[in-house]
Design goal:
single chain, about 220 residues, Arc Repressor Mutant, subunit A, 3 domains, 10 helices, about 60% helix
Length: about 220
Amino acid sequence: MPILTRMTEQKRRPNRRNVYLDGRFAFGVNLNVVAQFHLKVGLELTNQQVQAIQQGEVRQECMDKALRYLERRLYSRHELRVRLTRLEYGPEVIEEVLNDLQRLGYVDDERFARTKALSAAQHKHHGKRRAMLELIKAGVDRPVADRALENVYDVHDSLATARQLAMKKADSLCRLDPLTARRRLAGMLLRRGFDYDTVRPVIDQVLGDEPVDDPGGYNE
């Protein structure tokens, strides 16, 4: 069985150690892996232990990468899984890391959904439908998304937001005929995710009542 004969600090990465087995360099490991496996000079290792240490190093690398992503912004569990998969970490390693991150509170789809819904409502000025699509796209489960949207949009004045957006758009529509103007404004608001019951009264308020010969289609 190989013996750990030497362990040195890496020059450019002080949180890592070079491990030598039977006098030869074997692999580099993070200090967390050193502590996890109680590595020290003179330790005799089985081949299975060596493989476990190397696997532990891969897992630590995956964890470190995930934490770097999370330093920049919140991620859903699905989003983080997709990014780590692109780096070719194995699915078992990724799920172990995600479970640990969730247990530690770094990955929390409930918090992610609330934060994203709040941003959609207050900063992006999206309607509830658009916010739902974004959460589903991020891999958030439908019940979790529903709860987040209810908490945010039940107290958010979507009608006022839609009216504000419509007022900004109105000046660019003044030269169009009334039917085209209404359709253009409706299309913009619907794409923003506002529902028809919100869009219709806003258009009437901003552009005036619906013309008599308007067929009622808001598809343009």
